[in-house]
Specification:
With 134 residues, the chain is of the alpha+beta class. The protein is built from three helices and nine strands, in the order αββαβββαββββ.
Length: 134
């Protein structure tokens, strides 16, 4: 009975994770030229075969700034100092930055996940304030 329940749990998890972004465990930390946002893709962690067909498109937004969309192959986004300065209006304190991420798998694109960062240059690194899923 336990084996059947575990298999059923896996089927349900796989069904729902494959219909969403499945991104989790967001972490932000300073890097040599800015900050790095890392995350876990639960689908890729469960099924390594998805790793080769999964891409992440992201966009950075500030109060009066919007970056072009960029795509990466790994669950790591590096935001360089130039983009940080533009998004935070260089020198402003207590500024909010929004990072929007779309997950692409074969012919599927997820609804966006939005990560809101609080940025205070005096503290050295932004912190995650809020994560919103559409």
């Amino acid at each position: 009975m336990l084996k059947t329940l575990l298999e059923r749990r896996q089927m349900i998890a796989r069904y729902w994770l494959e219909r969403g972004d499945a991104l989790s465990n967001f972490l932000i930390h300073p890097s040599a030229d800015g900050v790095t946002l890392g995350f876990t893709d639960l689908i890729v962690d469960q099924k390594r075969t998805w790793e080769e067909v999964t891409r992440y498109t992201y966009q950075i937004k500030g109060q009066r700034y919007k970056s072009p969309k960029r795509t990466v192959n790994q669950p790591v986004i590096t935001i360089n100092r130039k983009t940080l300065d533009a998004a935070t209006e260089s020198g402003s304190t207590n500024t909010s930055i929004e990072i929007t991420i779309w997950t692409h798998r074969r012919d599927f694109t997820s609804d966006p996940v939005r990560i809101y960062l609080d940025w205070n240059p005096n503290l050295g690194s932004p912190s995650i304030r809020h994560i919103a899923r559409s």
